[in-house]
Design a protein that fits this description.
The structure is a single chain. Strand 9 and strand 10 form a beta hairpin. The longest helix has 31 residues. 36% of the residues lie in helices and 19% in strands. The protein has two domains: 284 residues, Ribonuclease Z/Hydroxyacylglutathione hydrolase-like (Metallo-beta-lactamase, Chain A), CATH 3.60.15.10; 184 residues, 3-Layer(aba) Sandwich (Rossmann fold). It contains 17 helices and 23 strands. Helix 4 packs antiparallel against helix 5 and helix 4 runs antiparallel to helix 8. The chain is α/β, with parallel strands linked by helices. Bound molecules: zinc ion (2 copies). One zinc ion binds next to loops. The site of one zinc ion has 5 residues, from loops.
Amino acid sequence: MKVKFIGAARAVTGSCFIIETDKARFAVDCGMHQGTSEIEKRNWDISVYNPGHIDFFLITHAHIDHSGLLPRMVQNGFRGPIYATEPTGDLVKILLLDSAHIQEVETGWKTKTMQRSGASTEAKPLYTLKDAQDTAPLIKTKTYESVFSPADGIKANFRDAGHILGAAILELFIEENGTTTKLVFSGDIGRRHQLLMEDPSKIAEADFLFMESTYGDRNHKGEEDSLNELAEAISYSYKKGEKIIIPAFAVERTQEILYSLHLLSMSGKLPKDLPVFLDSPLAIKATEIFRRYRSYLDSETQDLLKKGEDPLDLPQLKFSSTTAESMEINVMKGPAIVISASGMANAGRIKHHLKHNLWRPGASIVFVGYQAQGTPGRRIVDGAKTIRLFGEDISIKAKVFTIGGFSAHAGQDQLLEWLTNFQNKKMQIFLVHGEISAQDQLASLIRKRFGFAVTIPEYLEEINLQLGAPVQEVKKLQTAEPKISWELLLDDLGSKISRLSAQQEKLKSLPASRQIEIINLLLEANQRINDIKSDV
Ligand SMILES: [Zn+2]
Ligand SMILES: [Zn+2]
């Protein structure tokens, strides 16, 4: 059998692994590629997926970087079943409709911009609401710990990953020529002691492990520290009469923040007259799904619920479903907490709240989740002085808090600790779902500590999985190979740099904010070139 890495290969987003056995061709996860425009182009390259020839999908969890391209597959000929746990099924349905809505709205804006500049063509969405609606009936749900057979010779089992509601680690037992090979896909591995979620399941056996490595190079701060930092941000802006803006993913992070606010409220650290707005229709719907699947929550939360205490509620909590309600928050005077999506500030209502508050000294922007390269969230966290939103340069005067402890991902120590459960010393590991620097560090720690063979696959790499044999690469797809002449490319780059350097005076005459933006871009380019140099 062989596996092809179509996403989350030396990157965090776009999780998708296509497996071909002698009897079936199927995929684990179908995530959207997010981040730089170069990475996002991968969403359009349907030929590498060949969706008409995928028999079924197994989805580890609902996050868009694991499920967001399913409608694109359906749009392009996929008709098979999509297996997921019950909560994942429900969450995927609302997330895909939301994602399709975002695609359609953004395409509408693009078309208008193109038409204003005289073009007669229309921009096309990645997929439409109809594609998302057509995806829903294909979803077949399973519970944790119930082995099922999606195809002849293949058995699958979803086990609790402790990451978000319904998230699973996938065990696959594949029989070929009388031998059974066990593959384990970690999906995203949750952080231990995470609010609402059980700790990740311990798995004892695997022949091949496909393991996430998002935080392969660092640990999170403790839970207590995170609560204190959140309390600090709240008190900072509350005293100044300004708002506390929390960009949060609609699923899990929002609910964890609500739970944290509930805890702060119980300990008297949340002012009673401070309104809390949950300004995301999607997060409101996701919170309903959390309430529906109580048995998927951890035992502490279930105990609270049994006692009649609702950890997802606050006396001052207000839901803003409509756009009008959302806009009212921005004209409202005085302090408030605003939780809104998207978590990386690259789409959704949060962009409006940032536009209205980033420039206000005294306001707080509280990042509580992972910020991918190329997103506005990442630029703010990295210390940008201004940011462009809705065609306007917004200066950043608000206090920026980055609270790592709320992560739904295991940190480095926890990833290593999870590996101690595996008993088969000959297990081979493929590190996926991480930026290369994190993966390099984690790989060398794993080799040193456990002696497992570790491979960090590349985008579009194909690898033969053969028991007892070293990792053997199948020929890489044509699309993964450089099609461009090195000589021409480097010449072109060199001449562009010299033309730019001849225009320094012009650069200096641009508005300050534009200069800062260009400087940041050049610094980034400089860093990339350094990275390339160190590769060579
Ligand atoms: Zn995830
Ligand atoms: Zn993920």
